[in-house]
Amino acid sequence: MSADAHGAAVSDWPAGVDRVVLAEVDSTNAEAARRARDLTQPTWILALRQTAGRGRRGRAWVDPTGNFAATLVMRPAGPPGAAAQRSFIAALALFDACVAVTGRPDGFALKWPNDVLLNGCKLAGILLESLGSVGGSGGGSVGVSGAWVAHLAIGIGVNLRNAPPAQDGAVRPVNLWDEAGAAVTPEEFLDALAPAFAHYEAQFTTYGFAPIRNAWLARAARLGETITARTVTESYDGVFETIDDSGALILNTARGRMAIPAADVFFR
Q1: Which of 126, 192, 255, 262 has the fewest C-beta atoms lying within 10 Å of its C-beta?
Q2: Is the peptide bond before 14 cis (omega within 30 degrees of 0)?
Q3: Does the domain spanning 226-267 belong to CATH 3.40.1650.10?
């Protein structure tokens, strides 16, 4: 057992993984981009206060005091498709961490592509961004084609103590304290999350995406139900059948069976 910079006991912290705890930062993903080239091993960057967090598609991520905001920056093995599949690893790790800190296996579910739900409401979100590339240039959201990713930033936000205001059409946000009665600090949550991520990452690198896919589907919200998937240009209604071997959403629609690699999902 070791201790972090704040003196808290750390058990089961994964070997070969570093952590940085910051009192305040604009965005943990932005900080990951600033530090990536100088890091020699996978590193969790935890901010006790985040002033300019962001979500998918450039949306602002509202981050009230007491919540969890952290980014894992790493060098992902494999092509861009494998990098993108780490959103499912992060979701499984989040699920396990939530169960560990609450002692409650019920109530949690995973919403495609990157949210964790508690009692049907949004508890946590995940944002993957590439930080440079091998054989390409620039960075941005992780896709399934193109150059290999040099560094990957896996940003995670969890409503531990406070929930942001609800947005029109979106799943209502909740926090872990009010919904599950669990008083957890960001550092304590990271102590549960980091080992869980390391477990699924080792599984992924050894056996590929298949066991990750199966584990994710076992925890999926609204599987077998009618949902709406909205891309930048179109909206699809259909039965959520599964995810395919790449992680794309498979919908059975009036136009037939469709594979949707990226979209926002809305429940009825």
Answers
A1: 255
A2: no
A3: no
Q: How far is residue 64's CA from residue 162's CA, in Å, rounded to a whole number?
A: 6
Distance of CA 264 to the CA centre of its chain: 15
pTM (two decimals):
0.89
The tens digit of pLDDT for each residue in 135-153 reads: 544 455 554 345 678 899 9
d(CA 144, CA 207): 19
- 3-state SS class at 134: strand
Q: What is the pLDDT of residues 178-218, one digit of tens each?
A: 999 999 999 999 999 999 999 999 999 999 999 999 999 99
Domain residue extents for the chain? 2-218, 226-267
Nearby residues of 10 by Cβ (< 8 Å), 6 or more positions away: 1, 2, 3, 4, 191
CATH superfamily membership of 2-218: Bira Bifunctional Protein; Domain 2 (3.30.930.10)
Residue 254 DSSP class: T
